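Just curious: can you write whichever protein you like plus the matching structure tokens?

***
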Amino acid sequence: MDKFEGVANTLFVPLVARIAISKEFPEYFCDEKALELEKSLPENAAKGSSQYSNLASVARYYNMDEMVERFVHKNSISNIVYLGAGLETAYDRMQAKLEDQQVNWYEVDLPEVIEVRKKVLGEYENETLIAGDMFSLTWISKLDTALPTLLVVSGVFQYFHEEDIIRFIRGCKEKFANGELIFDATSKSGLIFTNWFIKRTGNKTALMYFYVDDSNGFAKKCGVTLLEERTFFNKVFKILGAKLKFFTKLSMRIAERKKQVKILHLKL
């Protein structure tokens, strides 16, 4: 298997988390494809990670996978589009569950990332990899916009500024007649903690800027409807309970109480 080369180290953080949790807590989340990719990671890819940071990353995938599955089952034919896809392995996690559904899978990212995906992950028959800047919206021309479409933005918006994201969401609203968007966001206080963690990993140039304290208020700014606001950790407590370290449980309880990390589901 080829090595991941020529891409930013920040791309490895979510993959490292999926590998770590798949090993430690497979009863909660198990990503077989991510485990296969461990041998392709560079040395020190897991630097600075902790049980809490890994679970926070994976809880995002756990919840988004549920939301994707629900969307697909609601629609007879649909597009699922991962924007800023990075080293996402959602197709591998979910295809078996959704094999009876008609789903067009898309992954969009910068050209150098797409090249690495093709080399290491390959490209499936009903999957389309699109190289380009997601904010340019040029990728939309590759899709049938009349179909029900779910846009999935995982771990991306935080690196940009609010005005850029609002412009992006308004642009997508104009293009998709039957579109929805899910994305993760932190609160202002959560952003402070996240930037502290990023500095610990040595990625001091990858600081985050975007946060959402008022989900309904943000949806109104974008001219769209908030369908759901979901926090990360409800299922984690139920499934793992006493297996979690004290600091992990404490951090999760604070995050849940203050809604420091959440997923917004918008109707475009």
Notes: The radius of gyration is 18 Å. The chain is about 40% helix and 20% strand.
